[in-house]
């Protein structure tokens, strides 16, 4: 009996050794190889489908306080530095009167304190010293409008700071060519929102001219062309958060990062100081409002 028990135990041990050998010398290498192949395949899939997550920051209308940079805006910059944004876009009105001193102070502050690249769109206050030619602005920032690519996404910064012009014909021609040459999802940034619901009722159209509104109509036509793959338009100017649709495209008005509300109806829960973090994941994006306390 003991002999049979010993043989049975030996058979079990041999079977276990066989299983161990089969796993370590045959199955495990193939599983590891399959795992590596899966990882490589996933990486290729992510590259092909543009599934790369990243975040950028957007703020507007920082203004000035007691003839100095706004303290609220300084908190915004500190907050952006703490988070993982790859770059920052300011939607304009970072000066009060568009003077050399104000531009110098803003640019020096940004170079000393912001830890990531940034871009600016001209606001109406930023061109007050020379609304038509915008010469002071161009002394400090060489482009009134521009575009750049980041992680297979396209970003366009436009200039509609002068209310008597809207978008110049030259700029709209450039925008058309820029989008025609682009193959990535596109995000657009500018200072003034366009075609706001009930803007005539609330008298917030800033006295635009026929040329202004004609340029906006052409702009809507361009961005709503499905071939241009425009995902969203971001603007500022009104010092409050307000999203609405431009036909098939969402326009998000980003609220103030320092300047006070200008209209009585804006003095509500949506007029607090804030900036946005926009996270892009593949072909999708999400806006996250970051409130800044006084």
* Overall geometry: globular
How many strand units? 11
Strand content: 15-25%
Q: Determine the fraction of residues in helical runs and give it as a percent range.
A: 25-40%
CATH level-1 class of the largest domain:
Alpha Beta
The secondary-structure element order is HEHEHEHEEHEHHEEEEE
Strand line-up across the major sheet:
4-5-6-7-9-8
Number of domains: 2
Describe it.
It contains seven helices and eleven strands. By secondary structure, it is an alpha/beta fold. The protein folds into two domains: 1-49; 53-291, Purple Acid Phosphatase, chain A, domain 2.
Name a few traits of the molecule.
alpha/beta; five-stranded mixed β-sheet; 37% helix; 294 residues; Purple Acid Phosphatase, chain A, domain 2
